[in-house]
Amino acid sequence: MTQGDATAHGLFGLSTPPEPDADGRIPSDQEGTPSTRQIRLAALASALFYIVVTAILGRDVLAHLSTTVAHDAGDPLLTAAILKWNATHWPLTDAWWQFPIFYPTRDTMAFSEHLLGLSVIASPIYWITRDTLVTSNLVTLLTFPLCAMAMYALVFRLTRNVAGAFIAGLAFGFAPYRIPQLPHVQMLAAFWAPLALLGLHAYLETRRRRWLVLYGATWMLQGATNGYALVYFSILIGLWVVWFVLRRSDWRALGAISLVTAVAALPLAAVLHQYVLIHTRQAFFRSVAEIVTFSADVGGILCAAADLSVWGWLRVSCRGEGELFPGLVVVVLWLIASIRSVRRVGVASTSSSSRLIAVVLKAFIAIGVIYLAIVASVLLHGPWRLDIGVLHISVTSVRKPALIALGCLGIALLPPLMRGAVHRSSAIGFYLMASVATWLLALGPVIRFMGVPSGFPGPFAWLLALPGASGLRVPARFWLMTTLCLAIIAGITLPEIIRGRSRRVQRALIALATIGLLADGWTSGIPAVAAPAPVPGAEFLRRATVFELPADGTFRDITAVFQAVEGGWRTVNGYSGFQPNYYFPLVSASRNESSDVVTPFQRLGELRVLVPSEAPRLKALLEAQPGATLIAQNGSLIQYRLPARKGEDAQVAGRRVEIREVRSECSSTYVHVVKDGDEQSLWLCSLTDDRQPLIADLGGVTMVGSIVYSVGTQFWLYPRTVDVETSEDGQVWAPARTGSVLHDAIVAGLREPGRLRMVLAFSARPARYVRLRGTAGESQFPWTIAELEIWSDARGIH
Predict the structure, then answer these.
(1) CB-based contacts of 473, cutoff 8 Å, min separation 6
(2) Which CATH class is domain 651-795?
(3) What is the pLDDT of residue 135?
(4) Own/partner pairs for 54-58, CB < 8 Å, 24+ apart?
(5) Which of 128, 314, 524, 673 could make an SS bond with 681 (beta carbons 3.0 to 4.6 A apart)?
(6) By percentage, how much of the chain surpasses pLDDT 70?
């Protein structure tokens, strides 16, 4: 064969690779591996291919880089604002922590992802372009080829085969899982993770310190890019160390990796320390119920994103963040790798017992394959029934056959696979096991199958025992680690499949895998959504406090955040992973078009308010405010100036009155908790329960002038109205105060983060009994009290 033939042959990975060693690598000094020039040409060709595919998918975004937002005007606008903030502020300074949202709340950068690991790439782009949307859109698109090339580098190191590396890059950079994650650039930006694994594998192979530096830097950057990856990828790294280092008792390597990890963790520790302090102060937490909601279903592997061109119809067991369809090609390659690993163990031997075990395992595989075919038939053609004489077979859903298929294949493949993989301690064995482990972790603390709880806890439940783990709201995002493992398996397995075959068959198999991977993850295109309209009179708003109405907790608030960062002002609106405790009643007051929504912030100074042009009631409300001035308007928004308003919000005064007894016919067993001093214990009563009123007995007639009504840290359980009545004898009742408490709830949250304690003031009067009745802020929430205090007087009654 000529040199030219050899170059072309090696460039496309068609040379027959030699046998891998015990770690799954192909030694570089054996005949048949590509030359350095071929390797570089192959890497360049692969990179160009990935870039072209990305350009086709993102063609609409590329055509309007500065005027559109990739995918939607939701989370991508928030991350665009964060990337600009990082590019224009020194990280970790006090000014950097004051992301200009949720005014006057401090340290709001800790309410969401900081994206510093991604800003390593985004900030230079912003410095060059000075355009936030161009930066955000380019970074989003760049994550595709960057992930692909990072995976290419890792798998080439493991296999020394460019075809396997190319397929692995395609499987990772354009995985189906990336499509439902398009709004979350931090989930797309997983390119540091393969480079960290590359550093670890290369260090074990060469013992050169530069590879440890690569590992430490990229592990730190991946953790600084995505808070979930900081934990989830670190768990994968821990499994890697156990597999490749501890099992070999390589204490020198363990010490070196541990030291580098500790050094790399120092900058992350500084950020995490602030996050912990701020979240503690704000009483941010995630409930187990919320974590279960965002856990994947076992059947989620049959849930493809609706935007996928080929597989969008496959929507089985879909739930929030649970679209885990891995793609047909990587599943086939995973199965081939699993079966080959099982066969290498030598399950079948000459002994009769081993032959019997082999027959039983093959029977389980056959049954599993049959039931997989039944699942496929239901997905493709719907429920069916077959009647043959006395034999009646019917299938109405995929749940039962899928459960049988998974059980049989698990029995047949996993035990021998684990024995063989552990015995060989190979790279393919590790990533096979890791793909299963990370998938199980994605299922959350309670395993569900086809929407039904199995009754078995998932491995994620173990994580919840660790400090801070309750902040991991979305276990399903562990699937990002599974996607990484599946891509590596695909890249290692393909060279083994094509080894020894003719050049034509090799080309055909590579082409088939390429087309299949593209089809699995293909979408008609990444949508390009119009950027928010300009703000009228933006030149007057710099450094001002701005409030855009109506606050909604979703898209309008996200737009307000983006415009604040772009225009250089601070906004009362906000959107992030967490919200301050007053924001729920703020949104409610906004929806009710109540003046309560602006008066608490006028107490803090002059306020600029933006309202839609087509919102006549909001315009009338603002124009009715004392001193309101129309500043500017355009086709979509109107800007008003509201002057600062002097005044004092209600505060307790005098002395606290002892409550001798509390009673209510509703939830009477638990009513005593309203005076137990624990704001985590709640008294709850249904809105539809006529026994709702709660009566506090003070033991004797005394002066009362205010109550403190607390919902504690359950700040979404705020009441909409609270009516307070007093009585000296329990027979004749006099109204003390009535109506909305939204203003009081907002003021309470601004006054004290972390718990919502509303002061409800009224004219002081003698009373022995105080009666309360309320309606919840949202219809699905109950009438709720965490703690109740009664005071003899009040200040600032309005």
Answers:
(1) 286, 290, 291, 294, 577
(2) mainly beta
(3) 98
(4) 54/141, 54/142, 54/144, 54/145, 55/141, 56/525, 57/144, 57/522, 57/523, 57/525, 57/526, 58/137, 58/140, 58/141, 58/144, 58/525, 58/526
(5) 673
(6) 85
Question: Span 488-502, mean pLDDT?
Answer: 94
Q: Give the containing element (helix H, strand E) for 769.
A: strand 756-776
According to the per-residue pLDDT averaged within each range, which of 35-39, 354-358, 535-539 is highest?
A: 535-539
CA angle 258, 260, 261 (to 5 degrees): 65
Round to whole Å and give the CA distance between 501 and 50.
27
Overall size of the chain counted in residues = 798
149-180 b/e with 16+ CB inside 10 Å = b? bbbbbbbbbbbbbbbbbbbbbbbbbbbbbbbb
Reduced to 3 states (helix: H, G, I; strand: E, B; else coil), residue 379 is helix
Torsion of the alpha carbons at 70, 74, 76 and 79, rounded to the nearest 10:
170
Mean pLDDT, residues 340-357: 57
Domain borders along the chain are 328-423+435-471, 538-642, 651-795
425 φ/ψ angles, rounded to the nearest 5 degrees: 50, 45
pLDDT band for position 611 (cuts 50, 70, 90)? very high
pLDDT digits (tens, 9 = 90+) for 375-392: 677 666 667 676 666 566
- Residue 536, burial from CB neighbour count under 10 angstroms (0-12, 13-18, 19+): buried
DSSP string, 438-454: HHHHHT-SEEEETTEEE
Give 137's pLDDT tier (boundaries 50, 70, 90): very high
Backbone angles phi, psi at 661, to 5 degrees: -155, 145
In whole numbers, what is the pLDDT of the chain averaged over residues?
87
DSSP string computed for 176-210: GGGTTTTT-HHHH--THHHHHHHHHHHHHHH--HH
Q: What pTM was computed for the model? A: 0.87
What is the CB neighbour count within 10 angstroms for residue 438? 24
Amino acid letter at 490? A
DSSP state of 284: -
Classify 659 as helix, strand or coil: coil
**C-beta of residue 488 within 8 angstroms of C-beta of residue 429:** no
Query: What count of other Cβ atoms lies within 10 Å of the Cβ of residue 665?
Result: 14
DSSP string, 544-565: SEEEESS--SSHHHHHHHHHHH
Largest CA distance in the chain: 108
List of residues 6+ apart from 360 with CB closer than 8 A: none
Output the CA angle 479-481-487, nearest 5 degrees: 100
Please identify which residue in the block is written with the tokens 């849930």: 303
Instruction: Tell me the β-bridge partners of 740.
Output: 721
CB atoms near residue 41 (< 10 Å): 18
